[in-house]
Structures are given as structure tokens and as C-alpha cells.
Amino acid sequence: MPFVEFFVESFVELKTMFKVIGIYVNTDKDADMSCAQKMAGLLEKYGFEPLLRCSPGLEECMDTVSFIRRCEAVFVLGGDGTLLMVSKLCAVYSVPVLGINLGRVGFLSEVELSELDGAVARLAAGDYTVEQRMLLKCTVAGEPLYALNEIALHRRTDEHMINVRVTAGGHAVDSFYADGVLVASPTGSTAYNLSAGGPIAAPGAEVMLLTPISAHTLRARPYVFSSRDTLRVQTAEGSGVIAIDGVQLSLCGADGFTVEKAPFTAGFIRVTDKSFYQRLNSKLSEWSVK
Question: What is the pTM of this model?
């Protein structure tokens, strides 16, 4: 058999090798577990082995990692916040995720509840793809933190505006007074970055987006950097609060923090024919109406 044909056949076989599929449920969104039970029943119907894990809200439980390591794929029942948390943990172990929207808008989710049966049928038939999404690595005081959407620097509530200074590859980029600044991935371009006036980037773009938050100057504008760059963000005051994907995690010291492309990616299972642009326009219209 020619190598190319062997490779193609092997790839098709690998795509249908999912056996154990985890179901991670945010019980704040599915209190009676009815959606989770329906999901488990569908997976069993199509020959998969479901493994259930439930947790209230966005609290990461101690055994979440051991749960993920037992799975070959994870279905996430919840909103974007739940999917953000779980997908980053799954990325470390190269376990792809599929988001089922139980939230308000669900930018990251692949399917709605009404589409569950069709989604599982396509997965069983091998009619799916795994889309790799770039993550960001933020290093604060030597500690690595990872973001799927963005790293944001905010002024503290007792502060006035802060003087933000940004360098890329050791070269000065800009300095401005603002309420803060954020560095977003392409995935995060439709989240906080969009609200702050930043550009939208296609999911496969290898870029980092830097967007000032309420800058007190007409000159400060969003920047688009290559994923090969390393950004350093500092404040003249040596203060500020760092939030990773919307969760406050650290205080910004005098050295600030660096942002670069993470060494691993997050895999998202795609089982629908909706393009990124169809999904984007649909969700933005729905969000505006709500």
C-alpha cells in the first residue's frame, strides 16, 4: 500500500477511535442533571462509553484532572466560562472538547441542546474535525499561567488610571494612561477584546491582540502581533490586577508580566457545517437582541 493511502486510512481510523467520552456538567446550568442523562444515553446508543463528572459553577474540583486523563474526548455542558476552564485542562493532556451550550450566548460552544442527536451521530460516523486553538502563556513572577481568551491588566479599585508600558521582543511599543490593557488570542478576540474595541481574528490566525482599556488618549490603538513575539506589560506604578480569562489571579509587580504563545493547543471538536463567520454573526445578533 502506498504511504499516502496508508496515512489517510490510518488518519480515518484514528478519528473514529474515541471510546470513553467524558461529560463535564456545570450543575448550576443543569441542576437536575436531565441534560447530562440525555447526553449519556445518546453516547451509549452510539456505542461510546460515557464518564460523568459534575461540578457546581466554575469551581475546579480536585479530581478533575484524573477525570480528564481517563477520557479520550470531553463533552462540556455549560456556558463559555465552563468550557474555558475545562478546555485549558484538557489541552495539557491533548484531550479534545465539544461544547454544548447551556449558557446565555455560547460563543465557544459547538452545538445547542436541540442538535445533540445529530452531533453524536456524526461523531460516531467519523464525520468531524478537531480544530486546534492557540493558547497564551502569561508569566508572572516566574509562574506560568495559561489563557484561552485573554490576559487582562486592570487598575485596582482604589487607583486612578495607570500608566501602561508595552514592549515586544525587547522593543518599546507604546505607553499610555488607561484603566488597563488586555492581550487576547484569536479565540478571545470575540470576548472582552471585542467589547474593548479590539479587532476580530479568525480562530486559526497565529496572532496576539493587544487592546487598551479606556485609554485617556486618542493615540492609543489596538495592536496585532505575531505569535512568535514575546510581549512584556508593565505599569509605572508597579501595580494593577491581572485576570486570566476573567478570573483575578495575581497582582502585577514592578517587573510586570510577559505574554507569549503557549507550547500546547486546545482541541475543539467540530461536528456542524457552520463556519466561524456564520457562528459569529448569529451569536452577535442573538446577543444584541438579548
Answer: 0.87
Sequence-ordered list of residues with C-beta below 8 angstroms from that of 156, at least 6 positions apart, any chain: 239, 240, 241
DSSP single-letter state for residue 115: G
Closest CA to 274 of 46, 125, 108, 113: 108
DSSP 34: H
User: 79-124, pLDDT tens digit by residue?
Assistant: 888 999 999 999 999 999 999 998 766 678 899 888 999 999 999 9
Give the sign of the dihedral formed by CA 88, CA 90, CA 96, CA 101: negative
E-assigned strand segments in 107-147: 129-140, 143-147
Is 80 tagged catalytic? yes
User: pLDDT of 227-260, one tens digit each?
Assistant: 999 999 999 877 789 999 999 887 787 889 999 9
Cα–Cα distance, 67 to 22 (Å, whole number): 8
- What lies within 8 Å, CB to CB, of 217 at 6+ separation is 176, 177
- 80, 174, 179, 245: the active-site residue: 80
Inter-CA distances, 202 with 16, 109, 132, 208, Å? 27, 16, 12, 12
The phi, psi pair for 33, rounded to 5°, reads 65, 20
